[in-house]
Design brief:
Structural class: alpha/beta
CATH class of the largest domain: Alpha Beta
Distance between the termini: 93 Å
Strand content: 5-15%
Helix content: 40-55%
Number of helices: 10
């Protein structure tokens, strides 16, 4: 009899232990051992969907090549506005017609990098474009603005663009009679800066000027500013680079 009772208690204890083990197993399955619930945002590799990078790019500032939208703002001086002609014949308009996207011409005459930086928030950031084309330098060189000031202003505009999820694209300054030394300094620094920051660069000189550094006669009437045909070839070049 005593042996029988002992056997019964052993069986009872075994059943109790089995129930406890099953209960703990159910708890692990249901709550996922302290992580995401089963069937929630857990991926097959065990990582959480909430911590995954967005498709097609890295996380963080300047991520991947994804654009916020197709809108482009072009900010600059007379060469962006389309002087001495009209905005309807400017290179931003030609580019817009080719790319079939919204392009805002934020070029104004008699501007330098100080002016562009001063109105960058109003004319670029407020438009929330996917890209901004920054064309500065000719007005700076004409006014004798130092390389240090030009650097500071361009760096500030690029930083503003990045901080607002806008991809900055730089345009190298064009040669202008009497500004050769500053032009050289600007171009050398801007080229190095673009490489350092991994920025796209446009160089209109490649389609407007000859090997001697003179603007091609068919693209100008005064040897300084492009004519309608000059702006058209600039727009075609920009569209090819930004497509």
């Amino acid at each position: 009899m005593r042996t029988y009772r002992l056997q019964v208690r052993v069986i009872q204890l075994s059943v109790l232990l089995a129930v406890i083990v099953l209960a703990l197993g159910a708890f692990e399955v249901w709550f996922g051992n302290g992580s995401e619930p089963v069937g929630g945002n857990t991926l097959p590799n065990g990582s959480s969907l909430n911590n995954q990078e967005s498709p097609g790019g890295d996380s963080g500032e300047g991520a991947g090549n994804e654009l916020a939208n197709t809108k482009i703002v072009c900010i600059g001086d007379s060469y962006t506005y389309g002087y001495p002609g009209e905005q309807k014949d400017s290179w931003p308009q030609v580019m817009a017609d080719i790319l079939k996207v919204e392009v805002i011409n934020a070029g104004l005459v008699h501007q330098n990098s100080d002016d562009l930086l001063e109105r960058f928030d109003r004319d670029v950031v407020s438009q929330a474009p996917g890209r901004v084309v920054i064309f500065a330098g000719v007005g700076d060189a004409i006014r004798g603005i130092s390389l240090e000031v030009f650097q500071k202003n361009l760096e500030a505009m690029v930083e503003k663009a990045k901080a607002n999820n806008i991809k900055p694209i730089l345009v190298l300054p064009l040669p202008y009679p009497g500004t050769e030394e500053l032009h050289k300094q600007y171009v050398e620094w801007e080229t190095a800066f673009a490489q350092q920051e991994n920025l796209q660069v446009l160089d209109f000189k490649t389609v407007l000027f000859d090997e001697q550094g003179k603007i091609l006669s068919q693209y100008t009437v005064d040897g300084k500013y492009p004519n309608k045909e000059g702006y058209e070839v600039m727009g075609q070049y920009a569209a090819q680079e930004l497509k």
